[in-house]
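tool_call: predict_structure(chain=1)
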Amino acid sequence: MTGMTSTARPLLNRRLAEFGTTIFAEMSALALKTGSINLGQGFPDTDGPEEIREAAVRALRDGRGNQYPPGPGVPELRTAIAAHQERRYGLSYDPDAEVLVTAGATEAIAAALLALVEPGDEVIALEPYYDSYAACIAMAGGTRVPVTLRPHEGAFRLDLDELRAAVTDRTRLLLVNTPHNPTGTVLTREELAAIAELAVERDLLVITDEVYEHLVFDEAEHIPLVTFPGMRERTVSIGSAGKTFSFTGWKVGWVTGTPTLVTAVRSAKQFLTYVASGPFQYAVAEALALPDSYFADFRADMLAKRDVLATGLATAGFEVFRPAGTYFVTTDIRPLGPELSRNGDGFAFCRALPELAGVVAIPNAVFYDHREEGAPFVRFAFCKRVGVLEEAVDRLKKLAG
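tool_result:
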């Protein structure tokens, strides 16, 4: 009979059963329903540089990228990515063999994990982690092993001893995100050196998610892990145009690594999207060649927005972990008191916040395996116009009476 399905097992692949609808969809829908200011999902509310948007229009009109682009990405973009890595970090990559363009960093992460991880392999990720990490490790059949970043002196820090202890004979890969979403932590040179030594000692592969590389503040410095001794041959580095140029809908990301690593990732990627974002690839090639002043101004603008939101959240009664990178602020809701904070339950607090203050945020617990570790923490995005942030701060001050 048509319309009948077997009830012998659930329809959804059991590897994905635990994930359900993302919290971003739920909270964005709640923002629309209540007319709240959405500081949950991390996308800007203004477009990036006009000349880069026009570059995409020009590519469309010139017929560049309207049909399938080359599988590894258009040559202009691969060349621009290699030039960017050389200019910023002194890293030399062959555009033809060591660069792969992807449908955003999310596909890069998926393709890398599907390519490099087999059933039974353990993958260590820093917790809290971007939610796609867990789903992609599961799809690859791997076992995720979280190592928790914990609050210490106003920031979330990595316990290197805990990281070392997490490595077993089954560990295949370390998944490292710095600057780190959602905590805003930027790993230090000493921490990265220790991670590199561990990877070499235990012969581990490493995936580094560096999509916020241009958003580091104060005294923090982004140092690619691949620059450390012994890391070139074992590291897949991931970057993205969306966060740096404020065109998140274009979905242009990339992978850099040795020819053997990039070939492995491309083998998986070709059966995901195959190719994507044709005309936008040409525009991003021009964006990566923007002068250093663009990147400095972009960082300064985000720093000012960070301070508006972080100061406002502190005034409203939150404990604020002022981020050293990214465009997110993590807060502890417990200082608001047991009633307002829903006894430190971030999920309950975020679901109530639109009615309490007309603002939407994200509960950090969704980024943890150890939900209790993340329960009292809530993330706010500051990649919005200053007027929007000021209005959100005014609304949040109601929490302080």
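agent: The chain has a mean pLDDT of 96. Proceeding to next step.
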